Amino acid sequence: MEEKIDIYFISKKAKVSPATVSRVFNRSELVSEKTRKKIQEVCEKYDYKPSIVASSMRTNKTKYIGFVIPNMTNPFFFELLRGAEEYASKKDYYLVVFNSENNYEKELVFLDAIFKRRIDGIIISGIAGGKKDNFFTREILKKKLPCVLVDRYVEGLDIPSVITNNVKGGILAADYLLKINNKRIGIITFELKIKIIKDRYNGFKRILEQNGLLENFLIEIPVDSKNILEELARNRDKILKSKVDAIFCLSDFIAIYLMEFLRNSDIKIPEDLSVIGFDNITYSQFVSPKLTTIAQDIYKMGNLSCEMLLNNISENNNKNIKLKNKILEPKLIIRESCAVR
Amino acid sequence: MEEKIDIYFISKKAKVSPATVSRVFNRSELVSEKTRKKIQEVCEKYDYKPSIVASSMRTNKTKYIGFVIPNMTNPFFFELLRGAEEYASKKDYYLVVFNSENNYEKELVFLDAIFKRRIDGIIISGIAGGKKDNFFTREILKKKLPCVLVDRYVEGLDIPSVITNNVKGGILAADYLLKINNKRIGIITFELKIKIIKDRYNGFKRILEQNGLLENFLIEIPVDSKNILEELARNRDKILKSKVDAIFCLSDFIAIYLMEFLRNSDIKIPEDLSVIGFDNITYSQFVSPKLTTIAQDIYKMGNLSCEMLLNNISENNNKNIKLKNKILEPKLIIRESCAVR
DNA sequence: CTGTTAGCGCCTTCAC
DNA sequence: GTGAAGGCGCTAACAG
């Protein structure tokens, strides 16, 4: 029978108490250099790795952060995840992935898994929410699980979030289109119940309004992110007959599908029709024509969300500092998909 | 002082023993329906969620799987992750993300984190490996941590893997180019030390050889996945002067950068130059011209890798069935980036 | 600076 | 079908 290598084993070999061994890993400043070195040598020799599982029992900290994704098909979320992971792993926290694919049932399962696992906090980059509005976030709040929203926010709920100024993003898009004299406007929308999406829409529309061009707002096509191409095809006539100059897409993901659709329909971008997107995902620069878009700093949003969450987790102990939201600035990226008229 | 809600609390309220409560969650077939219902009601009432952390201590199972990614910039890995997550979460396992960005130091840190966290197994979609070749995998083997490689394999080591037949993929690419009479050939390579990449290369080259066209293998440009565009630019003259008909890229990720580079250099695809890729990532269909490529079923690879890992984890107990590798078939996807000459 | 001790919340025997 | 009890590996509190 092999002897198990735990903290007692190490403490015996090093001729110290288990508490001292523990201190070496947690509060090593309390241990004299001499004994610390000795203990480290013994640990090395037996390849001892203290169990975080066991320490979680005592400390009530698992060093895990949940990362909830609504749709792993959109690389936008991968970039968000990348930003968060990079910050977390630096601090010895690691991310657990929960991909709901916008499925409410799955979210309920995740909620259960998250609580059972005693995860220290979660970052939410999108939830379906289901019939009961915001059930997910309400549960999180009820249980006082530290939480940060990225690229999402919920009004009236006390959950910090990291977002881009989406209203301003919409404004930038509209301003630009008008400036280059694209005045017959269409828009492809999706999930307008999501506030950040609605904000883009509102910002955009506001500019048309201010310029008395609301009657030039000719088509508005809602799309479901699962069957974008089909829904565009269903609206083919509407799009072709509208004779719009430009179409604003509420995300690059959708813009790229729209470009594909237009190409298949022999409509030339930007000669026949300008397209402008939102997000600036990596691939927007690779489609052709290169997509003009409103950029968010996606990586930074992910990174910041994790930073905020970890700050909250540690501040929870001396509940003093109030969480703040972070709002990043959007930026117009002019590439090739919009024409001056 | 709030009473803590643990298994004892529930057992008292339900007037049963803690053992019975535990059984309801784990081996509920051993509990009579009547007591089970009663216990469930009490759990519901107090919103009790048994701690997986505590159960991990007893069972030595954390229900976590590590997912090691070499590069979160390539959406290929997101698709792999998606496939694995989907399988895992169905079985109440969850994935912990370790993104090394091909950094050997980070991998060492991860190795430590993985062992300390007593994660049940890991899926590796790529590692740097560092100076000591395969240090990472050797450590994993030494500690007998269940492990599966996806889109990677290591010869001579007893680690199961899920891959596509990459040699065959290379063959398909070469066959196709020759068939459409593209006979002056170039290739953009990267990380040839990775076996699956080298296999693609070898399969491709073998066909040229068999057709006595090896002297038509005109340029071979190695590229570092971090600065693809710059490295292509550095080789601009070489590419332009070679007058090749077609370039084979060992991944779509690279092919897309190459297309971008060629576009910037006013070389028309496919009229002046055919491009063929490998992987069939989502965006290959959105670039224009649409990329002709050798497809791997990425999602399925991720899914399968997780299935294999979980099978191994449970079979470990009654160490009987030997792990097998899975080799999926590649498929030529003809789109628009290769011209008949 | 170091040691002793008592749990953290659960599950697995082993009884009954 | 159910209960009693010990222990998984660690750390916090207290004592020295």
Q: Can you put this structure into words, describing what you see?
A:
2 copies of one chain form a homodimer. Chain A is an alpha/beta fold and about 350 residues long. Chain A is built from 13 helices and 12 strands. In chain A, the strands form 2 sheets. A 6-stranded parallel sheet of chain A has the order 2-1-3-4-5-11, with helices on both faces. In chain A, helix 5 (about 75-90) packs across helix 13 and helix 10 (about 230-235) crosses helix 12. The N and C termini of chain A lie far apart (about 80 Å). At the A-B interface, helix 4, helix 5, strand 2, helix 6 and helix 12 of A face helix 4, helix 5, strand 2, helix 6 and helix 12 of B. Chain A binds a DNA duplex (16 and 16 nucleotides) through helix 2 and helix 4.
Please summarize what this structure is.
With 341 residues, the first copy, chain A, is of the alpha/beta class. Chain A has 13 helices and 12 strands.
